[in-house]
What does this fold into?
Amino acid sequence: MENLNKIFIYVAIAILAVAILGYLIFVFQKEAPRVELSYTGEELAKKIESFLAKAQKEDGSFNLFYVCSALLEEGCLPEQVESPLHAGQIILAFYDLFLATGDTAYKEKADLGMKFVMEKCPEDPLMCEWNFFPLYVYYKDTQDPQYLEGMLSVSEKFLADKPFFNDFVDGNTGVKLAMLYDVTGDVKYRDRLDRAAEQALNLDQVLAENGNKLVYTVDDFAVRTRAVQTVWATLIPAYKATGKQEYLQASQDFFDKADTLSNLDAYDGGFAGTFALVVAVDTLTEISELSGGVNSYLQEARSIAQKLIDEQLDTAETPKFTGDYGFLFVKLEDNSNAKGTLLTGWLVRLLLRMGGEYEL
It folds into this structure.
């Protein structure tokens, strides 16, 4: 009888121990905070590159969009896009990774993308226009005349006085004019850019006159659609081409007054809002570099990038659909979304430029 009682006691103790252990596991799983992993800009850029590599086809072109939905068994599927294929930031993401790491595997992917662009440019000039940035970088680094010829083949289009200021901004024409001036020294490109930048100094007026809607206000300062892109694609390149301090000052003044970081909720998760914030990160980084490394602009750029990473990067650490490090940019009401390969490539480039650390 005594032995039987001991067995009952042992069993009771064992049951109690299992119950306590189960409770502790439940509480830990329920209440323990998620451990956030920290990565340097380069480390995170390397992770995101895996999405770009997946998107590249054998001919060097890319799947530019992936439609994502919980209703899809695969999670995300590539969406076919008509030519021209806008892949400049993707190609340069591979190229920048090569420059940062020395790993030639990245350069091979960039070169394959450029090979596709150069093969298609003669039959489709938009391929040169929409992939202008890598043409410039490749010409600067190699001095191979084929890249300069590609730039010049579409250059006259940028010199035209377009009827609407929006057209100039939407085509990133100012950036391209500055690049053309840099590689040719021909002042006609600088002067056309200078005229547009003078117009952009009256930023709110010119944007309002061209139908750009109000996004938000800070005190009496208005921020409209295309405002950030106008600074990035007109004022910044004009400063670099002309050296006129007022263009850099106007760029600094815009971000000082706009207080973008405090007004992120004004930008939705759709393409326009996402694009504006990516451009803001680029512009703030550029202003920091042009201002001698002013840390406040760089810190704001990193903080905006962190928010985009938190909410729109589909990572293995915090998967939203497939966890393949694609960047989501078109949030829809039914919780479906789309990944943009171009913006994913742009994010890689920004992480490499900004440095710093980012949490997942």
